[in-house]
Amino acid sequence: MYKLRMARKLVGIREAAEALGVSAQTLRRWEREGRLFPDERTAGGRRRYDLVRLRPGMFRAGDEAKRRTIAYARVSSHDQKDDLERQKQVLELYCARQGWTFEVIADLGSGMNYHKKGLKRLLDAIIDGQVGRLVLTHKDRLLRFGAELVFAICEAKNVEVVILNQGEDTTFEEDLAKDVVQIITVFSARLYGSRSRKNQKLLDGLKQAVEESERC
Questions:
Q1: Contact (CB, 8 A) for 158 and 67
Q2: Structure confidence by residue, pLDDT tens digits, 185-206
Q3: Start and end of every HTH merR-type domain (predicted)?
Q4: Where are the beta strands (DSSP E) in 1-120?
Q5: Quick check: pTM over 0.85?
Q6: Which of 1, 3, 91, 157 has the most CB atoms lying inside 10 A of its own CB?
Q7: Where are the beta strands (DSSP E) in the chain?
Q8: How far apart are CA 105 and CA 95, in angstroms?
């Protein structure tokens, strides 16, 4: 992995003192005490300080401003497309009211699926340092399980996470039922090869129960 090195910005003692909010005399005293040394001296003996090293936050501000706000929306299935549009509208309205420049990434797929194109694009942008803020309508819109891991990555990358609704999602039961069906389907496929009629019958019964509860 390559690390970017910021270009040095060498200034005289007065400008360095002003940047730190102290006097030039204080900088001279800190040098005598071994607390802060100039980065170099000119041929005439004048002190030169690297502002990037003294106050890196001043030079990170421009980079921070370039980081994007991304709003992420997701539903589990095609029959929830109307809900997906509502999510996107809520996210767009909220971000616009905050005055943020933003992008909406939308996914159609189970909260158990970690290979959705939109989610992958979002994670790649976060890890690459391109994202400064992530906005969600509900936590479960990101992932059913594992959202906390993504939030930990956001924290490590200094990404602000904004969740508009902390309560239960209105589509929670419907989505959960679809996710359970997906889990059962995966296990059914794995157990099918074993030709265990008992296991297959059990899984078929569970799947049927979930589908019936979903219809109710």
A1: no
A2: 555 555 555 555 665 665 566 5
A3: 13-50
A4: 10-11, 40-41, 47-50, 68-75, 102-108
A5: no
A6: 91
A7: 10-11, 40-41, 47-50, 68-75, 102-108, 131-136, 160-163
A8: 13
